[in-house]
Amino acid sequence: MIIRLKEGGERIPLTISGSDPKKGLITIIFQEIGKTTIELGRMEEGESILNLVGPLGMPAELKNFGTVVCVGGGVGIAPILYRVKALKSVGNRVISIIGARNKDLLILHNEMKELSDELHIATDDGTLGRKGFVTDVLDEVLAENRVDLIIAIGPVVMMRAVTGVGSAHGVRTVVSLNPIMVDGTGMCGSCRVTVGKKVRFACVDGPEFDGEFVDFDELLQRNRRYLKEEAASLMVMRAGRCTCFEETGCE
């Protein structure tokens, strides 16, 4: 889904990590890394955001595949938790692998342990679980188990690496892409990705695609398009002023 906090604010895509249809509630877990997510984190209970649109894109394929390995990295663990719950509901055996740079950045490991048939943890510095990357663990899991599908959600470089390990073992990998999104309809073209040498729009055709056919290099390049502007916007926010005030009334 895409949210906008206020008039003049940017639109950012976020993935839900839980829902309660009876109460009409959704759960979103995000990392305060840019201007809008920091502002979102500053909101108090009872405040509201201006716009929320979704769900967007195609529903994830859900059936009994057999044994599924779910790989979550960083804040990508939040949506992978939702996928694990759904996969278990239709009878899959789920082996989960989650990772982060260190234990302080590893989220939801207790919830993942409760839902998964088997949970492996990897941290870059070894402060929790195995020292190393999720791909190190994945390689071992695939060598020891018959696996029917891999699902990976996290940083692009992680999803590319997971896809490579999966391909080496002959196992299909589904990835959830996170390109820049603006309108959520595909009209703006910001979320354009190349999959199987064909143009796809993640907000309407995705976000999940077969990792083997994704042009990850192009995705990485396109995701860097506004790094300079994002850094400037964050710097202005921390300085306590907004340069777009005169044009939009943004405060």
TrEMBL record:
Please give the cofactor(s) recorded in the UniProt entry for this protein. Answer: FAD; [2Fe-2S] cluster
Q: Which Pfam families match?
A: DHODB_Fe-S_bind, NAD_binding_1
**Protein residues bound to [2Fe-2S] cluster:** C188, C191, C203
Q: What is this protein called?
A: Ferredoxin-NADP(+) reductase subunit alpha
User: What region holds the Dihydroorotate dehydrogenase electron transfer subunit iron-sulphur cluster binding domain?
Assistant: 178-214
User: Could you mention a single GO BP entry for this protein?
Assistant: pyrimidine nucleotide biosynthetic process
Q: Which InterPro entries match?
A: Cyt_c3_hydrogenase_gsu (IPR012165), Dihydroorotate_DH_Fe-S-bd (IPR019480), FNR_nucleotide-bd (IPR039261), OxRdtase_FAD/NAD-bd (IPR001433), PyrK_electron_transfer (IPR050353), Riboflavin_synthase-like_b-brl (IPR017938)
Boundaries of every Oxidoreductase FAD/NAD(P)-binding domain copy: 71-162
Residues binding FAD are I29, F30, Q31
Return one GO MF term.
flavin adenine dinucleotide binding
Which keywords accompany this UniProt record? 2Fe-2S, FAD, Flavoprotein, Iron, Iron-sulfur, Metal-binding
How is the cofactor bound, in the record's words? Answer: Binds 1 FAD per subunit. Binds 1 [2Fe-2S] cluster per subunit.
Report the PANTHER family cross-referenced here: DIHYDROOROTATE DEHYDROGENASE B (NAD(+)), ELECTRON TRANSFER SUBUNIT, DIHYDROOROTATE DEHYDROGENASE B (NAD(+)), ELECTRON TRANSFER SUBUNIT-RELATED
